Amino acid sequence: MPKHRPPNHFGEVFPPVPFDAGRYAKRRRQVFRQLGEDVLLLYNPPEAHRTHDLFYRYRPDSDVYYLTGFEEPEAVVLLVGGPCPRFIMFVRPRDPEREMWDGLRAGVEGAVTCYGADEAFPIESFDAEIGRYLEHARTLYFKFGRDEQFNQRVLTAFRAAARRRHRQGPAPGVIRDTLPLLGRMRLVKDADELLRMRRAADIAAEAHLRAMERARPGQYEFEVEAELEYVFRKRGALGSSYTSIVGSGPNATILHYNTNNSRLRDGDLLLIDAGAEYGYYASDITRTFPVGRQFTAAQRDIYDLVLQAQKAAIDAVQPGARFNAYHEVALDTLIDGLRHLRLLSGSHDEIRELRTYLKYYMHRAGHWLGSDVHDACTYFTDETRNGQHLYEKLRPGCVVTVEPGLYFAPGVNDTPEHYIGIGVRIEDDVLVTRTGNEVLTAAVPKEVADIEAIRCAALTQEKNYA
């Protein structure tokens, strides 16, 4: 069987990421340089209820974490620009009784001594204190979130500051989304971020290979999902970076399928789309392989075409290229292949113009990747051409996913019988470098010969599942 395990990586347990106050202070200084005399307000929402009085495991807002490293719920971060920029935090105060149940809190004192805030207040005082920080700013940068009550509290403070405009001088005149301010900054990863993303990719790569080696006809999809989750946590990831997709047979044609409760059948394909989150940075990998030993002829036709499109798209991920360039390359390759297989009729240009390919390929070829799986940056610039906004250019330090696919769902008209129920997607995480690109998830095999060798070995000899 081919060797895919890079030495000194697979099997290594990565410890929790240590807190480095200087790293976050440096990022805040970058924001202050852009902020001028405006104000940026970020928010860690409360814990989300799972059932009754139980909560989901907490994850901080990505922007809050990016600028502070603060992980506790119910916290406000305020960056106030001006000649003397200030970093203010509103946090939950220390509470020995609650800490006995839920764990230690930084408290107001810790926000200053540990996290570097210039001032800190109990979260309960937010409404009373926020007004004075808005009084002299023309713009408030704030991302409206799902907490409608908090959104309303910010709006109330904003309106109160605006009413004082004529009496006390300039007050906020507009609320702007944080995306233009922080999105571009987060788009290019620094060395610490890339280290976390490499570890997230390495963990997920091992998990995918384990699933490829251990999947068996007759198992349930959730058993394969359990193999993924085991590696994620065993290696030191916080868990999945999104709900894992483990879809066999026709389930693989459902783009966001995650019920994961069907039995695996010999002769079907198994599509696994799963990533690990390490240090609040994501990986995102998809592989498709036979439940049995080999691809059928029809499955291989589709798989080879998707792999060809993915390789061509990866080659198009280059510094200076527009973000959409690699999608266009993947789409052109898929259209040519579908015409060759006589699954689409008409000329290449007609298929593109009429978008008849959408019945088999209905998504883009990738997205930004970082702290969020769909990382928080716009895909378009302010530049225009022929009245259309241009896509962002890829820059060294950007990370994208490359994930073309083809899906032949039951019930789609004019699909030959032997293709029905086939779903194939192949996805890698690709870092843009100064000279080209680097595939962070290359450790997971995707060549047909390698996959079939792994599957044959897996089904020929018994594995130790301990």
TrEMBL record:
Residues 19-151 form the Aminopeptidase P N-terminal domain. The keyword Manganese applies. It catalyses: Release of any N-terminal amino acid, including proline, that is linked to proline, even from a dipeptide or tripeptide. Its EC number is 3.4.11.9. Keywords: Aminopeptidase, Hydrolase, Manganese, Metal-binding, Protease. Its cofactor is Mn(2+). The keyword Metal-binding applies. InterPro entries: Aminopep_P_N, Creatin/AminoP/Spt16_N, Creatinase/aminopeptidase-like, Pept_M24, X-Pro_dipept-like. It is an enzyme of class 3 (hydrolase). GO terms for molecular function: aminopeptidase activity. It comes from the Bacteria. Belongs to the peptidase M24B family. This is Xaa-Pro aminopeptidase. It comes from Chloracidobacterium sp. N.
